[in-house]
Write a structure and sequence with these properties.
The chain is mainly alpha-helical. 65% of the residues lie in helices and 0% in strands. The longest helix is centred in the middle third of the chain and has 26 residues.
Amino acid sequence: MLIVRRLGAILLVLAAVAVWFMLKPEEKVQAEADFGAEIAAAMADYKANNASTDSAPQQQVVNGWVAKDLLEVIAREQNAALSPASAPRHERVPAYLLLIVLGLGLIAVTSERPAAIPGPVLAAPHA
């Protein structure tokens, strides 16, 4: 059983090394979207609308419009950054968990069973 345990341990170590090198995380596949054009458009609209205002309430409305436009750009940026296509996949963790379970199974299968402890011997009653 000792040879089986050692061979199993060597195979598990080789498998762990193979997992480390062969299951490296994928690179981010995020298409870097440039939102500079949308920001520039929002600011150009702001300047054009602000130039035609002549009172504080009108300026407040224009400021609200540009804030809404810029928040929309921020929301699009966040959605692009958090999309599932942009997140790298890590396959190492499930593979290592499988190797741990296999190692525990190897220990359980190759462990020596403790010898049975004899209980007290009862003498037969004398008749």
